[in-house]
Task: structure prediction
Amino acid sequence: MRKLRYLGRRLAGLLGILGIASLAIFLLIEAAPGDPAQIMLGTGAQPDTVAALRAELGLDRPLPLRYLAWLGGVFTGDLGMSYTYGTPVAELIGQRLVVTLPLTAMATLLAVAVALPLGVMAAQNPNRIVDSLATAFSQIGIAVPNFWIGLLLILGVSLGLGWFPTGGFPGWRAGALPALSALVLPAIALAIPQAAVLTRVTRAAVIEVSNEDFIRTARAKGLSRRRALWRHTVPNALLPVVTMLGLQIPFLISGAVLVENVFTLPGIGTLAYQALSQRDLIVVQNVVLFFAVIVLGVNLLVDALYILLDPRLRGSG
Result:
């Protein structure tokens, strides 16, 4: 029950933050220069035509009413109609999620699969070749932007070797293998910077836990180095790794905007970029709010993982 109350308080706090974030998103986007109706009709449109379109889109209503109408639509699932595409925003987001969600999932799994073993090996072999390679990988991965990595992958792997397509997405109806093949290089481009950060955090956390008294006690009682590593050191070193993984989700989402445009993927990031350039405010508002929901949801998941990983939280109020 204590765990449920703790998660309930965290959920209530995140909902309050989401409400503040929605207001900030609405005000910031409204402050952006340019009139959507004028942009849609062109600079040569007559003022009465622009005024009629503003009334049709609801842009002539006061800001508080427009905000409340938008927020009410979010809770009921009615995200409004896109100015540019003429289709429901919820439908647009749903169509793009089938690209972005698998892409980010693949990037996250790849980053964890590379960072955890590399960080553990580097921590267990300080000042050796593995440690030097892990350090070099971390520095390069952090320094090089993911969109530049994507361009290098296109030049080297797609155009040079011909192993994967240079861009585009065939759709899941074309089969799982062609769809996943189109996401492999973008996922690698997204995963490398995240894996670089996680490798450094994992290495530091494993070294710190290895010097704790309970690890030395376990070794003194006859526990082998390998068993002490995987039974005690790594599980206790996962807390900062999980924390950093949760903090990286916003950077992963922002990186997806650039990577999807590099690989011409029809994902959420591409939709946000196109909507912003076309001043499709209702699409931009809902996409940014969706990103905020994802980030806050990941934070709640991290809190739940804390309870599972840290015995002190399982028994505390």
